[in-house]
Amino acid sequence: MRMTVAGGGAAWPTRGVACGGYLVTSEGFRLLLDPGYGTMVGLPEGVRASDIDVVFVSHDHPDHCADLHPLLRARVLESGVTRRSRSTRCRARSTACSISTVSANGTGRST
Asked: Could you tell me if 59 and 102 are in contact, meaning their C-beta atoms sit under 8 angstroms apart?
């Protein structure tokens, strides 16, 4: 198991320092924890948004979930889907986030 710190800053990002966010990798499985402001750019080189299997958001403050939108947008762009899909959505609750992703053929898959 490996943990990568994608951001280690405070409640808002500063120049060159993203909010807290962590990528846990084990046997090819990738878990993104609390993707706050700027953590997407802090992911290791070569890790694409579509490589992330699960996102866990501990609570609904922006410094723990603000990069969900860029993550979802990147997944759609990586898939090659050019039309808008209703199956891409994110629901954040106080302790978890449910993400529906879009596959290359435009169908939804909940993760």
From this structure: no
